[in-house]
Design goal:
Helices cover 19% and strands 30% of the residues. By secondary structure, the chain is an alpha+beta fold. The protein has three domains: 317 residues, alpha-galactosidase from lactobacil brevis (Beta-galactosidase, Chain A, domain 5); 239 residues, Aldolase class I (TIM Barrel, Alpha-Beta Barrel), CATH 3.20.20.70; 100 residues, Golgi alpha-mannosidase II (Immunoglobulin-like). The longest helix is centred in the C-terminal third of the chain and has 23 residues. It is globular, with a radius of gyration of 27 Å. The structure holds alpha-D-galactopyranose (GLA). The site of alpha-D-galactopyranose (GLA) has 11 residues, from loops.
Length: 744
């Protein structure tokens, strides 16, 4: 998959569908040629380099009025050597200079893909799945080596990139900026797509037209954040969900990030993704190596849905790993919204018994089970059972839950501490704070300094003891505040710029240790809902709590946005009580079920409080999920109608072989005497006959009809007087089953 033209120094990374081309300039800098739909393997491509003599430019060589980095598309640009755009890296030497001139040294082609030490990364499993190109560069003045790494995958239209810096000289260097990916696109005629929001309304789809200058999103909070997701896409103006060019960029990282598009005066568009340079500085001693997080870039000619399917396929199969990757996820019940901190063992057992009766498989005990935790002002850091609530400890409760025939799961917030805790009393120095200044709190809690190994060790010991002594199959790993007054007591002044990154490395390290010790443990990540829902976490935690907002209608938006990058199997989605805790809205149990069924499914309410009829529905939902969970987890996902654009949300999950599909259609507000509606489906076999089944509708049709004319929507508000039936109210959601009819 990697074609090297030795004579022209051109590297062509190519699979059947995409090509990425780079070359080495005469000056020794790697230049960019092309990224997009696959080009012929044999061509010569150097003529794609565009350079002209332009007034008011700076040129790199005397006597040459053409070669200016300002005009040349590059692979990993630096500032101050005739390019005036934002650079991919900035290296500060002891002499105070920030100029760097790396020179090409050589390359290697590696079959497969190397892991990134201490960092999340995509991987390969079988021969021939991916090839990696490593480009070796060196700045002779500093003897700083750079390795630019590019992996191309055979079966996914994606490339993975990262950069390593190795200090081969004798001088201490500082990396002020070390981006994971830089890409100079030949024009700026794109819109950017980002996923932005806030607590309880994460990952709303936002589209912006590009103008000359910078379009950027970032996090400076220590976690990837509710505010912006480490993802950016470029689409043409006429690209929609189903067709048109899209380039998607995702950073596999859970800390401070920057995703930026810079359109210059020649309409070249520079995309950049990596650790946020703000507040970052990494000291690189002689002999030391720094490796950037990985960035993944996807190209699709099949619109935004096409981009998402590539991300889903890669992340589901070659980022998520271990025991749970291909296994069906258990239907769970979580007690948080039902009880908050106020419960007894007896309450929990009653709760679990009813859940078992409904077919639920995993009982998750949320916050409040440990230390003196009766409210959010105390207890974090003391990961021992609160014996007043749980007289038989976690071991005893877990045994009782297992005796009911369910698995047991537990909530933790490993990175945090309350001042009212034994851990803080013993180690007040364990928190992140700046000497001489007050430490700001968030939810009455403080952030443990995970940049220090001894702090991670202390938490690891507590978690290890609990997980080894009690039968715990699942943990919900929460993180409920961002970092402030970032400073570590354990590091000298010239290493304080490393703390945000070292903190995340500590978080990854603790995950890694738990996965090593308890390989069958299912980890669900959480950060006040979706404050750290990113591709980095997916490497450790195959599912994540999408949002603290569990209202079914809000969730259609949040899950719609989340699906741009992340597969359904990663989206923790629960049916909760009504009126909804966050928004006060009442929706039917069917609507709530439909929203949650297209995720890692569960409940978050006291089932003992439901009516008999609602319990019958819950049992049906659980049974339906179990029957369909492999399709829901592995199927191709298509967004059909956007809740950001109209009154409907609709999506489809289709078996890759076209044999079965599930379609969810949610109408937000009721209408009267509206139009007849049809919904064109995707991914079916045109000449296959299907049976269509929904609560009130049953007919047969060929795949071509369903994809061209569309699925006929059952909606009593269309063309009929509203008759009070169960499809003519606000917040109505219907699930359609489309099943291939077996021919004999
Ligand atoms: C966060 C989580 C919730 C719940 C609470 C417990 O807000 O997102 O799901 O676990 O913490 O305190």
């Amino acid at each position: 998959m990697i074609i090297v033209n030795e004579k022209e120094h051109v590297f062509h990374l190519r699979n059947e569908r995409i090509s990425y081309l780079l070359y080495i300039m005469e000056s020794g800098q790697p230049g960019h040629l092309y990224f997009g739909k696959a080009l012929q393997p044999g061509g010569s491509y150097l003529h794609m380099v565009e350079k002209a003599h332009r007034p008011m430019s700076t040129y790199i060589k005397e006597g040459d009025l053409y070669t200016s980095y300002e005009h040349l598309r590059q692979e990993y640009p630096c500032y101050g050597t005739s390019d005036y755009r934002y650079p991919a890296m900035e290296i500060l030497g002891r002499d105070g200079s920030r100029i760097c001139k790396p020179q090409y040294q050589g390359y290697a082609v590696i079959h497969g893909k190397k892991p990134l030490p201490g960092l999340p990364a995509t991987y390969t499993e079988e021969e021939g799945e991916a090839d990696t190109l490593e480009i070796y560069m060196n700045d002779p003045l500093r003897d700083l080596e750079f390795i630019l790494s590019y992996t191309i995958f055979r079966d996914v239209d994606a490339l993975a990139r990262s950069v390593s810096f190795i200090n081969r000289g004798n001088e201490v260097l500082f990396l002020n900026r070390a981006m994971s990916l830089s890409l100079d696109m030949p024009d700026m005629d794109y819109q950017t797509v980002q996923l932005s929001g806030s607590w309880a309304r994460e990952r709303a789809v936002r589209i912006r037209d590009l103008e000359p200058g910078i379009t950027a999103i970032c996090s400076m909070r220590g976690n990837s954040s509710h505010q912006h997701n480490p993802f950016l896409a470029l689409k043409r103006k006429n690209t929609n969900e189903q067709s048109g060019d899209v380039f998607g960029f995702s950073l596999l990282y859970s800390g401070n990030f920057l995703a930026q598009a810079e359109a210059d005066n020649y309409q070249v568009l520079r995309i950049m993704l990596g650790i946020n340079p703000f507040g970052f500085q990494w000291k690189l001693e002689p002999g030391e190596t720094f490796v950037t997080p990985e960035a993944v870039m996807v190209y699709s000619a099949e619109g935004l849905n096409g981009m998402s399917r590539q991300f889903h396929r890669l992340f589901r199969n070659r980022l998520v790993r271990g025991y749970w990757r291909d296994r069906e996820r258990p239907v769970l019940i979580n007690n948080w919204e039902a009880t908050q901190f106020d419960y007894t063992q007896q309450d929990l057992l009653q709760f679990a018994e009813k859940a078992k009766e409904c077919g639920i498989e995993l009982f998750v005990l949320d916050d409040g089970w440990f230390g003196a935790r009766n409210d959010d002002r105390r207890g974090l850091g003391d990961w021992r059972a609160n014996r007043e609530k749980l007289p038989e400890g976690i071991e005893g409760l877990a045994q009782k839950i297992e005796a009911l025939g369910m698995k047991f799961g537990l909530w933790f917030e490993p990175e945090m501490v309350n001042k009212d805790s034994d851990l803080f009393r013993a180690h007040p120095d364990y928190i992140i704070r700046t000497p001489g200044r007050t430490a700001s709190h968030g939810r009455n809690q403080f952030v443990l300094d995970f940049s220090r190994k001894e702090v991670v060790d202390a938490i690891y010991r507590q978690l290890y003891e609990l997980l080894s002594n009690a039968s715990i199959s699942y943990i919900k790993w929460d993180m409920n505040r961002s970092i402030s007054e970032c400073y570590s007591a354990a590091y000298p002044a010239d290493r304080q710029g490393e703390i945000f990154h070292r903190y995340i490395l500590g978080v990854y390290d603790l995950h890694e240790r738990l996965i090593r010790d308890f390989p069958q443990l299912l980890i669900e990540s959480c950060a006040s809902g979706g404050g750290r829902f990113d591709a980095g976490m997916l490497y450790y935690a195959p599912q994540g709590w999408v949002s603290d907002d569990t209202d079914a209608i809000e969730r259609t938006k949040i899950q719609y946005g989340t699906s741009f990058v992340y597969p359904l199997s990663s989206m923790g989605a629960h049916v909760s009580a009504c009126p909804n805790e966050q928004i006060g809205r009442t929706t039917s149990i069917a609507t709530r079920g439909n929203a949650a069924l297209t995720g890692a499914f569960g409940y978050e309410l006291d089932l003992n409080k439901l009516s008999e009829e609602e319990i019958r529905t819950v049992k049906k939902q659980v049974a339906f999920y179990k029957e369909n969970r492999s399709l829901l987890a592995q199927g191709d996902f298509y967004r059909l109608l956007s809740p950001f654009e109209g009154n409907f949300a609709a999506w489809e999950i289709c078996q890759p072989d076209g044999s079965r599909a599930l379609v969810t259609v949610t109408r937000i507000l009721s209408e009267v005497n509206g139009p007849y509606r049809r919904l064109p489906l995707r991914g079916l076999l045109p000449d296959q006959s299907y049976h269509i089944q929904s609560p009130h509708l049953s007919y047969d049709a060929y795949g071509d009809e369903l994809m061209q004319f569309g699925l006929m929507l059952e909606d009593r508000s269309a063309g009929q007087v509203t008759d009070g039936g169960d499809t003519c109210h606000d917040f109505c959601s219907l699930l359609y089953e489309i099943t291939a009819i077996q021919t004999v």
